[in-house]
Amino acid sequence: MFVAVVAKNLIPTLQLPPLIATNLILLAHALVPLFATIFFYKLVDIVGLYFVKMAERSKNTLDDQLVPLIRKVLKVFVVIVGFVAILRGLKFDIWPLLTGLSIGGLAFALAAQDTLKNFFGSLMIFIDRPFQIGDWVTSGEIDGTVEEVGFRSTRIRTFRDSVMYVPNNIISNSTVDNHGLRKYRRFYTKLSITYDSPARLIEIYVKGLEEIVKRHPETRKDYYNIFLNDYAASSLDIMLYIFFEVPDWTAELRCRQEIMLEVNKLAEHLGVRFAFPTQTLMIEQVPGQNSLTPVYKKSKEEMNKELTSYFNNQNEK
């Protein structure tokens, strides 16, 4: 580029024939922006390598997708600007060209509205960062792991191992549930035990469940709920509501298995029986036998005395 600048200034002093001198001067004028374009084109690669190093230090994997896209856009920009500068160096009248490009660009924009929407949708994804590569996301019918974010679409690997290509315009304007950003992973279930379980056994069993949660290395210790919670149709239901502090779904499944095995072992040790869905058919009156319907012969005053006696015994305990 430096040689082209020097040549551009020295050619007139050579006193060459006008046609040759004119063409050489035009060539020198064109070589300056040509070499400048090559310089900045290579400079984009160097800047891209710097961004790659920065992206590697970042925990956000979305940066790894953004760097190649920025590098491509910068290269296209350098080539377009360099091409226009070369034409100006060759003394071409570029205004009709720019006018034509602007009209053509308007027509192209009208014809490619969806593509432009997806492009700006991708910019919103890169700016807002609602998810990153490797996150499990859910949005409407979209359910899977993010593999790649491009300028037009986002590639998502479903749990059926198929690949979904979602336009960025759609995903940027939708509600995205990012499971990958969870600090804790919830485990909620009901333990159904038989109705003939004594109250004291239920209390001990619930206390044992709490101890299992406290001793597990990857459970949340500051918040959990384990209570006898419901009278179901054929069982007494104990609510087990806990959280795991693990990074991924595989670790969550492993922790679930460990907790469930400990729950079963404790039930076997204490003699707690889990309930099956059952129905009891009671025939109220059978000829020749007493009715199964209980008869209450105590007066209301006697029942109040029994109630007072029960709570007095509880206070003594």
Helix content: 40-55%
When the domains are counted, the total is 3
Look at the helices and sheets and give the structural class: alpha+beta
Question: If strands are numbered along the chain, what order do they take across the biggest sheet?
Answer: 4-3-2-1-5
The Cα radius of gyration reads 38 Å
Number of strands: 8
Biggest pleated sheet: 5 strands, antiparallel
Terminal residue distance: 98 Å
Order of helices and strands: HHHHHEEEEHEEHEEHH
Q: Identify the overall geometry.
A: rod-shaped
Number of helices: 9
Residue stretches low in confidence (pLDDT < 50, at least 5 long) are none
In round numbers, the mean pLDDT is 82
Strand content: 15-25%
Characterise this structure.
With 317 residues, the chain is of the alpha+beta class. It folds into three domains: 2-111, no CATH class; 130-181, SH3 type barrels; 185-270, Alpha-Beta Plaits (2-Layer Sandwich), CATH 3.30.70.100. It has helices spanning 2-10, 18-57, 62-89, 94-111, 113-128, 168-172, 199-215, 249-270, 300-316, and strands at 136-139, 142-149, 153-158, 163-167, 177-178, 185-193, 225-231, 236-244. It has a five-stranded antiparallel sheet with strand order 4-3-2-1-5. Helix 1 packs antiparallel against helix 2 and helix 7 (199-215) packs antiparallel against helix 8. The longest helix is centred in the N-terminal third of the chain and has 40 residues, at 18-57. It is rod-shaped and about 135 Å long. The N and C termini lie far apart (98 Å).
